[in-house]
Batch of 2 targets.
Target 1
Amino acid sequence: MKIKELSIPESAKQIIIKSGITELYPPQEEAIHAGALEGKNLILASPTASGKTLIAEFCALKHMLEKNGKVLYLTPLRALASEKYEEFKKYTTIRKKSGRKVSVGISTGDYDSSDPWLERYDIIVTTNEKADSLLRHRARWIDEISLIVADEVHLLNDAERGPTLEVVLARLMQVNPDAQLLALSATVKNAEEAAEWLKAGYVTTEWRPVVLKEGVLLQNEVQFKDGGARKIEKPTKNPAINLAVHMVQSGGQALIFAGTRRNSVSLAKKAATGMKTVLSKPVKRSLTRIAGQVRASGERTRISELLAELIQQGTAFHHAGLSGAHRRIIEDAFREGKIKVLTATPTLAFGVNLPARMVVIHDYRRYEPGYGYYPIAVLEYKQMAGRAGRPRYDKIGEALLVAKTEDERDYLMESYVLAEPERIWSKLGVERILRSHVLATIAADFAHTEQGIYDFFGKTFYAYQYDPQAIKGVIARTLKFLFEENMIEVSGENVYATKFGRRVSELYIDPVSAVMIRDALLSRAPRLTDISFLHMIARTPDMFPKLRPYSREIDDLALFVDEHREEFMFEVPDEWIDQIDYEEFLGEAKLASVLDAWIEEMTEDETIERFRVQPGDLYRLIGTARWLLYASHELVRLFGHKDLLPHVTELIERIKKGVKAELLPLVRLEGIGRVRARMLYNSGLKTIEDIKKVPLEKLTSLPMIGPKLAKKIKEQIGGFVKSREWKKLKRGKEWEQKALTGYSRKSE
Ligand SMILES: Nc1ncnc2c1ncn2[C@@H]1O[C@H](COP(=O)(O)OP(=O)(O)OP(=O)(O)O)[C@@H](O)[C@H]1O
Ligand SMILES: [Mg+2]
């Protein structure tokens, strides 16, 4: 079937054809036959790279251009949301019936808002978590959604991300039963079951546009699924690296998945040694430029330095310890074909399009603290393998596992290459996860009676797969907890959220976190300091990422706890009696001291050295801390502890910028971060008044301040500024307001 023959508006076809797509892939054709364009609910379960997104685009165009509809596109990750947002922007030249152009919006942060501004967009791309929070705020425009697309829907199976997706889908079906639902999934065994739950039809195929040759590597021989084999040369000791280098020599690029960050780094180093002879001069030149970009973005650390060095040799590693900026630079450079061998942890396995002609799955086992090693699921293997051979980039793809022995080779062949993906199972039925969703159901007016709550959860995938009764016990326990903690009240048949409960639901925090914060604020510490508040949020179950103390840190942390004993809002467990609790407390103390180090201006490199916390973790930690401090601020207000407001507000601002309080006026200037602000302060320019008085030449003579920045600074504080901006700066308390916006939760 040709794009030309589709029943979508001509203007849309033109854009698709212009992007190089003229004919439908077979799974796409099947989806059309199954009624995708007639508004039918569908699950599309087809292999990686089979073009699932395009079906969503057809449907979206149909809705927007012919039915004046609105589209919600759900993704599990922020990075994926941005990729899709960029892709959909190509449609913004099309005019709708109203004469207005198609518009695309994205929203992935700030969980305490209904984002009314999203209303003006035709396609709204969000993460599942953001969608959940929008539903809790009862964003009005949700009623106008006529098409819901859920991407990577097999993640229902994921213990962390699955339940949110499941609740969001169940809620959307509840509030907006007429909307069309399109779920995009990897091939899974029980697509039919998921489809029944969603009252949808389903299309499953095994078709891929680019042949993916799967196999296992042992020493210097690859054995393929189809029985073929190939020998490779052995320039280095590591067979996976030899394979990758071979791929680069024949003009391709390779992506190596490692099980841990550490392995991804060591593999990248090994790959670099194998790459010496294969890079051309022009490629080397652009690699030097990219390495420069890495060095110039953010603070210099041992990680950014190593990364830059490896990039110069045509390789890089990609993991969650890197800052978002560095990850983007690497992804772009790999897409442009400059970086030849990329090693990565599995977060890069979801839905992204990369030019990897070869994927090597180096570690098929994962380590879980307290549990040991376990082999990954076939589904995860398929996701990783599926990054190879993407249609825009390559004509053929190879995905290989690495075995050390013949037995292992047979095992891998059988258990992954020839195996079928598993069934997916709902992970919703756990109290830890349910309590926040049960509260939200009441607080956001999705149900008003106990029966209503059971009815709602009776429509989840969990209830569908197991038994509605199975979830009832957990919900009853949760209701009791919420009642006892004053988040809900009961009147006859009816259940209502209290003011507290409603706010907790909107703030998108775990009710248990809210209880901790509420009680801490009441009991207070004998001496209230930054540590008091930082430890308070570190203790909540919402704190993420969790940091486990290393054995060599234990003594220092114990000392830290002793020194700050008076400042904690919670009692320190007895080291000898409650050993487990005490160790947990040390973990919280570690989190608090990392955050404290950040606002005391410790450099990122020192943070890595002292705490083994890498920039990516640090930024995620800061993001979570901002969100939880904001939530604390709101609870401080709610419970009338006015005396605490200034301290919490200042902390939010300091966490945001990573500075001591004395630098706050300076970092409020655009272009001035923590490092420059410290430099200005130490050169005697301590206040805005000081900077106003200093001559422009003096300013430019300071390190890290060029003429452009100097002018910008002067303009901001009253040189050549517009009167409107000037007034804004003069308004003394303005920053206090600013401090309270733009926080965010987990970033991926
Ligand atoms: N009919 C088509 N003709 C040519 N290229 C296509 C066609 N449909 C999709 N593509 C291209 O195929 C690539 C893969 O598509 P897409 O990202 O939608 O895959 P997917 O099925 O979502 O895979 P994954 O499961 O990995 O997310 C994209 O670059 C897309 O532009
Ligand atoms: Mg996809």
Target 2
Amino acid sequence: MDQNPYHVPVMANEVVEMLRPISPRLVVDATYGGGGHTQALLDAFPELQVVAIDQDPDAIAQGPVGDRVRLVRANFSSLDEIAREICQKGGAGDGSCIDGFLFDLGVSSHQFDEAGRGFSYRRRGPVDMRMDRDAEPGADTIVNEWPVDDIADILWRYGEERMARRIARAIVAARPISDTQHLADVVAGAVPAALKRHKHPAKKTFQAIRIAVNNELGSLELGLEAAIHWVRPGGRVLVIAYHSLEDRIVKRRFAAGATGCVCPPDFPVCTCGRVAELQLPVRHPLRPTQAEIVANPRARSALMRVVQKVQL
Ligand SMILES: C[S@@+](CC[C@H](N)C(=O)[O-])C[C@H]1O[C@@H](n2cnc3c(N)ncnc32)[C@H](O)[C@@H]1O
């Protein structure tokens, strides 16, 4: 099979197989990217309609993609409104109508590899990192205008970078930071040699700034909440995460939804009244096969979690 030059979909077979038991007719692909997952789903389910969302105009510009796909340029933080509009004309008693939601988080290969987008510490480009080019601010505002404490804070929170304060001070001292290569060099200069052996020294800093620029964790919380609300009873929500910060949010929300009665075990009857809204069709997260990782090293850190809405 020819590989999509825009982005090779990760765990596409697993995505299809996790939706197969529910025979989906309507799926929201909340992260369309290069459309690889959407295409795999269309191929697997001939009756399927897909609403495909992406905030990046480059992703949307690849369309149109046939009459079974509706492309929507939006941030999935507004998924509640999008799903409400989709379900207005029918659905289950509570208004929910969507069989499946898919979130394949993070950036696409296209975004990462395109120097002009400023996501990569290996390519010279503007310090930008916005998935939605109409959104503000870009990464240049963070590195060239933010106070040192605020920079250190995001490097620590979103990059889990132990050298956060040293790197933040080096960034502020090197202003103006002119491009991504300059930023990567400044970070490399601030990190002790012993910590540079295994990973590129700027990897965590770039990840942290990207997450802050795109408010990735805040959007994920909102998008996940909307998906859980609007998926029909018996429907499924699938999330592929690539680092522990986003996976933690997914894991906790799914676990909370799958928790029923919390009364002490010696209570004869439940008095808390809590009922699980979700169940976990697979208890542990799914990972890509070794063969997939060899074929597509960017799949290496992927972790897929799945929940099913309880049929009441
Ligand atoms: C990993 S890629 C998805 C690749 C896609 N599944 C495929 O098979 O080609 C992630 C995509 O999601 C988009 N994205 C990330 N966060 C988003 C958000 N909050 N709202 C909308 N799109 C988002 C990015 O712009 C990017 O195109």
